[in-house]
Design goal:
Blueprint: H1 3-23, H2 28-33, H3 37-51, H4 55-78, H5 89-106, H6 111-127, H7 133-145, H8 150-168, H9 180-184, H10 198-216
Length: 217
């Protein structure tokens, strides 16, 4: 599977999850099917960091869409135009990218400082209540560190996911482990890309659509 195909799987999973959150909050199957999305997104943040030649542009793009997505995220999933107790997933992905940059920047001369930086950024994600918090940042970091050792990557992911499942008291989180199945078939190829920024724009667009649909029903 190429990157485009895997990202489409992640978008479909996320859409199912959010349909459940907005319209069927008591039906667990929507949340279970939606657990595939976040690990795939984290995986490609790590891949993007490893291969991009425009890191600043990549980070800025994540940050811009984080701010663009916040109101759609709040109104669709939190029922408020401003909900400070939870921030959308783009902020988590951006902080994960920052953690990778800091880790690489300090790796040769100050490796211990890099670990402190990752811990600090993970704590910041938790303080800001970004979606998935510390877990998201740490998952991105380990997806990057273990990118050349698939067995180690899967073991670390399973351990982290189990730990977060216990931490978050989420009945559905354990099913995120099934994201390993499509990720195992990743062939390292980019694949054909849809229109520019499609994968970024889909996030706020589908949230606004779900919010509008709920108002009509």
């Amino acid at each position: 599977m190429n990157a485009t195909f895997l990202k489409i799987i992640a978008l479909c999973s996320m859409l199912i999850d959010h349909i459940g959150t907005v319209f069927f909050p008591q039906v667990l199957i929507f949340s279970i099917l939606g657990r595939l999305a976040f690990p795939i997104f984290c995986f490609f943040i790590a891949q993007g960091f490893a291969h991009t030649s425009h890191l600043k542009r990549y980070g800025l793009r994540l940050l811009v869409f984080a701010f663009l997505s916040e109101i759609p995220f709040d109104v669709a999933l939190k029922g408020s135009w401003f909900y400070w107790k939870s921030q959308n997933v783009f902020f988590t992905l951006f902080l994960g990218l920052c953690a990778l940059w800091f880790l690489e920047y300090t790796r040769e001369k100050f490796p211990f400082l890099g670990l402190i930086g990752v811990a600090a950024i993970s704590s910041l994600a938790q303080i800001l209540h970004t979606d998935y918090g510390w877990y998201g940042v740490i998952l991105i970091v380990f997806f990057y560190i273990c990118r050349d050792n698939k067995l180690m990557l899967w073991i670390v992911f399973l351990l982290l996911n189990t730990g977060f499942h216990v931490w978050a008291h989420s009945a559905a989180q354990v099913y995120a482990a099934f994201a390993l199945i499509p990720l195992s078939f990743y062939n390292g190829k980019r694949g054909a890309h849809p229109v520019p920024y499609f994968f970024y724009g889909f996030y706020p667009a589908h949230l606004l659509f779900l919010f509008g649909l709920k108002q009509l029903l």
